[in-house]
Amino acid sequence: MSNLSMLTDLYEFSMANGYRQTITDEQGVFDVFFRKVPDNGSFVIAAGLEQAVKALQNFHFDDSDIEYLRSLNLFQENFLTYLKDFKFDCQVSAIPEGTPVFPREPLLTIRGPLLQTQLFETMILNILNHQSLIATKARRITYSADGRPVMEFGARRAQGPDSATYGARAAVIGGCSSTSNVLAAEAFGIPAAGTMAHAWIESFPDELTSFEKWAEVYPDNAALLVDTYDVLKSGVPNAIKVFKELKANGHKPVGIRIDSGDISQLSKAARKMLDDAGLPEVKITASNALDEHVVASLLNEGAPLDNFGIGEKLITSASSPVLSGVYKLAAVIENGKMIPKIKVSASREKVTLPGLKQVYRLYQPGTDKAFADVIALSDESLDQPITVVKANPLATKREQRIEKFDAKPLQNEVLAGTDLKMAFPSVFDIQKYSKQKLTEIPAATQRLVNPDEFPIYVTTKLAALQESLLEADAQ
User: Residue 150 maps to which CATH number?
Assistant: First the structure.
C-alpha cells in the first residue's frame, strides 16, 4: 500500500501542531465505531483492518510532503521536524475482519501520543468505513442468493480505482465468490471471472457466428451472453447449437447469461429449452443492476438461476452508500494516569462511551450460540451473574440481569509500535471466519427486512462513568 500520511484533513495537522506546542507528552485513546447500520440492517461486517494496519506501519512523510506543509505557513518548524522524523509509537487493538459488529462497539482502538493518534483519523476511517460498507452490502446480497455464487463485477461503476479494487476485496469478505476486476484478483488471490460483452457479439455478422468463434477460442469456458438480440428466439437457440457441438467434441459447456428483460420469465423459458435440448448441466447467470431485493424476488418467483453477476448496486452500496463510522477520543493519559473523556451532545444518541474498553460476545454456556454483546471497561471482569445496561440510550427497560454465559473478548492486539501482533489471513479465510461468526448470531438478526435487534449492553461501571462525566459537564 502506498504511503497515505497526507490523506488527512487539515484540521488534524492543525491540532497535532497545537499539541506539539502545548502538551507534547500526553497520550490519547481513540475508538472507531458507528451508530447507524446501512440499509436498516442490524449489524456491519468489519473489513479493511489489514489495509489500515499496513497504512499505519507505512506512515511517514517524504521531503516533498514537508515542503508542502511548510508552504501553508500554518505550522511551527519543530512540528515539521517531528513529522520528518516520524516514528509510529502507538498500540492498536481491533475486532477481526469478517466479524459481525453492532452499533457503538469499538471496531478499532488506538492508543499512543496524542499528536500521533490525531493524525490517523481520516485515513483509518476512510479505509474501515469503505470496506466495512461494501462487505456488509455483499453479505446482504449473498444472503439473498441463498448459497448461489455471486460474482462481483462493478469496477467500472465504482468511485475510482481504489474503491473498485478494495471494494472487490470487501465483497469477497462479505460472501462473493469471484470478481471481474483482474487487479483485485491478482492482489488478493480472488478467482477472476467473466467472459464476453455485447460488443463481441455485435462485432460478427450474426449471433451464431459470434458464439461459434468464442467456442473455438474458449472451448472449455463457453459462457454465452444471450440477450444481445432476442433471448428466446435467437440467443438461447444459438447457444444450444454451439453447446451441442462442444459436447460432441468432448467439451463441457458452461452456461448462459441474461443481462436484460424480465429475467424471471426469460430464465424459466431458457431453462426449459436447455433441458429439452439435453443440456441440464448448463448454468443460467443473471445480471443487470441487481441487488439483494431483486435477487430475493427472482428466487421467490422460482427463477431457475444458478449464479448472479452484481455490479453497481454492490460496489457502491447504492441503496445506502455511507457507513458513518467515527473516530472519537475516549481517554487521555497524563503521567501514567488514565483520564476518561466524553463527547457531550444535545442528542443522547451522540454521547460517547468513555475510557479504554473491551467488547465481549456472550454465548449460552457450552455452546456457540451468541445472545448479546457487552461493552466493558478494559480493567473489568465479567463476573456471573452480571447486571448490565442497554447501550442504546433511547431504549426502555435498560437494565438487565444475566445469570449464566460464556464471554469471549472481540478485540485483539494487532500492532504495538512497529511490532505486528497478528497474521494477515487470506481473503477467503476471512470469508470463512465471517460465515462461522454469522452462524453464531440469531437468524432473526440477519433478516434483510425488519431484522430483530441483537442486544448490546454496557456494564454498570461503564454506564456510571458515562453518567458521572455528563453530570460533571452539566455543573
Answer: 3.20.140.10
**250-308 residue pLDDT tens:** 999 999 999 999 999 999 999 999 999 999 999 999 998 999 999 999 999 999 999 99
pLDDT digits (tens, 9 = 90+) for 65-108: 999 999 999 999 999 999 999 999 999 999 999 999 999 999 99
361's CB contacts (< 8 A; 6+ apart) are: 370, 372, 373, 407, 408, 410, 440
Cell of 350: 451522540
Cβ–Cβ < 8 Å for 287, 151: no
Buried b or exposed e, range 59-85, using 16+ CB within 10 angstroms: bebeeebeeebeeeeebeeebbebbee
Please say whether the beta carbons of 86 and 63 come within 8 A: no
pTM: 0.97
Within a domain: residue 215?
Answer: no
Instruction: Output the DSSP codes for 327-377.
Output: EEEEEEEETTEEEE-----SSGGGPPPPSSEEEEEEE-TTSS-EEEEEEEE
Q: What residues make up the domain containing 432?
A: 1-195+254-474
Q: What is the total count of domains within the chain? A: 1
